[in-house]
Amino acid sequence: MVKAIVGANWGDEGKGKITDSLAENSDIIIRFQGGANAGHTIINNYGKFALHTLPSGVFYDHTTCIIGNGVALNIPILVKEIEEIVSQGVPKPRILVSERAQIVMPYHILFDQYEEERLGGKSFGSTKSGIAPFYSDKYAKIGFQVSELFSGEEALKEKIERVLVQKNVLLDHLYHKPQIDADELYQTLVEYRDMIEPYVCNVSLYLDQALKEGKEILLEGQLGTLKDPDHGIYPMVTSSSTLASYGAIGAGIPPYAIEKIITVVKAYSSAVGAGAFVSEIFGDEAQELRVRGGDGGEFGATTGRPRRMGWFDCVASKYGCRLQGTTDVAFTVVDVLGYLDEIPVCVGYEIDGEVTTEFPVTWQLEKAKPVLKTLPGWKCDIRGIRNYEDLPENCRNYIEFIEEQIGYPITIVSNGPGRDEVIYRGFEK
Ligand code: GDP
Q1: CATH fold of 2-87+204-424
Q2: pLDDT tens column, 207-236
Q3: Residue of the nearest CA to atom 17 in ligand 1?
Q4: ω before 235 within 30° of 0 (cis)?
Q5: pTM summary value
Q6: Distances (CA, A) of 244 to 71, 103, 221, 257, 406
Q7: Where are the domains of the chain?
Q8: Which of 120, 179, 320, 323 is deepest in the core (most CB within 10 A)?
């Protein structure tokens, strides 16, 4: 069976932790989109890790971890991440990389920086990992597939020359930066080829066989619905689809193979980058939640930058779950809210004097004001609790109120960052 683990919100919902927990009973874990621009923080018996490219299943020796064709593959970062976890005592993971994955080129990272510089105050808040230039090139059909590294010197050099014609014009005339040297780029790609060779695989064929053998497969999403380029807060979105349905494309499996979609929803809101954020809070109130949030505060796993904070948003989360095609909700970081006397929740958006519970398009979203309802807090530490019934009544009321508002069953509750800090509520593992 294939299960997808995806986010309903702006990312950083705790997908890595849920993937790490469920990987115990899985054979294969696949990253199917995104790149090294976001990170998952995982805490387990080996220590604390920030993964950017590796799937969160790398900590078990029975798993195979796959970089699917939909990923923006930064080869040096992948290799470095493998070395880092091994140096921290994790057994060398079994990794396969799709021969159809495309490569983040050194110039994608440069173009990302140059474009942010050019846009100045109007930038999109990119992490400058080269993701937007990478996907632009992929769809402009001037990207490099991993397979092309093995296509021979002549073919590779010919393609480099062709692509650099465009790149160097932009560098000269738009960004006023140094040109890219074709020979240097060729040498870099030869190094990339040697680094990636041990992992390259015909992934869709491998997965076809795995499905026939009845293997347990997890698809691990990056970011969340609201950052999806089609269904998110365009243009303040990421460049690849964050939806479970894209898992079929980004891994090369049939769409109907995905039987469970576990949408990770965080008990409060956080976001990075620019864009409308209706339930956002500011000042001391935000700082207190930020510092207490997640494991050791809500600061980016890749960039270290402070995340924007807000109350739980039922409108955005209901929409986020719907677009994912949710079968199960994993409700995370509930423990963090234990300090509050009362917990505001955004239950509607007021736009031009009318209240709606349906998530609008971006220009309307920018006008939305939150309609808040306040629920009583539970004022205690709930970490360590393993049975749903043992949670304080107000905590259960909070969870059940949100379940009703979003309209999807919360079958997993996460009450701590650790692998085992999970309460299953009718979830079939
Ligand atoms: P991801 O990108 O969706 O995997 O999320 P991140 O790793 O960026 O952010 C989630 C943060 O919350 C990490 O620091 C996790 O260790 C932490 N976390 C996950 N689940 C829980 C939880 O239930 N409680 C607490 N306190 N922290 C959690």
Answers
A1: Adenylosuccinate Synthetase; Chain A, domain 3 (3.90.170)
A2: 999 999 999 999 999 999 999 999 999 999
A3: 294
A4: yes
A5: 0.94
A6: 14, 22, 7, 11, 18
A7: 2-87+204-424, 102-198
A8: 320
> What separation in Å is there between the alpha carbon of 17 and the centre of ligand 1?
6
Question: Is 12 an annotated catalytic residue?
Answer: yes
Catalytic, out of 20, 27, 40, 231: 40
- Is the distance from the beta carbon of residue 57 to the nearest atom of ligand 1 less than 6 Å? no
Ligand 1, atom 12, lies closest to the CA of 294
CB under 8 Å to 182, separation ≥6 — which residues?
157, 160, 161, 164
CATH superfamily of 102-198: Adenylosuccinate Synthetase, subunit A, domain 2 (1.10.300.10)
Shared fold status for 2-87+204-424 and 102-198: no
Is residue 423 lining ligand 1, measured as CB closer than 6 Å? no
- Contacts (Cβ under 8 Å, ≥6 apart) of 130: 35, 72, 74, 104, 105, 108, 109, 110, 111, 112
Q: Does residue 303 have a pLDDT over 80?
A: no
Q: Does residue 112's CB lie within 6 angstroms of at least one atom of ligand 1?
A: no
The response to whether residue 417 sits with its C-beta less than 6 Å from ligand 1 reads yes
| Residues 15-29, mean pLDDT to the nearest whole number | 93
Residue 50 pLDDT > 90: no
In this prediction, residue 92 has a pLDDT band, given cuts at 50, 70 and 90, of very high
